[in-house]
Amino acid sequence: MNENWCIFCLAIIKGLTVEQAWNAWEGIKTNWTYTEEDNEDMKKMRATKMSYKEIGEIYGISDGAVHKRVNGYYKKNRPTVMEAAC
Prior knowledge:
By secondary structure, the chain is mainly α.
């Protein structure tokens, strides 16, 4: 669907101004476009002692979302007990 139509529908359904709907759409769209590289970058930033809040401000997401992404990345790439033993 055309992005403009999505914003138009969002404005009608939520009772927002066009500007508010545009900002809301940008927030929704941003959450869809994170890649594994972004998650890896978040992990690296966290390793340099940056706070979840500071990382979240860079990516435009909450500190809780950063925490979930960083921890999800760790769990996904952490070796199992059997792999670590070999």
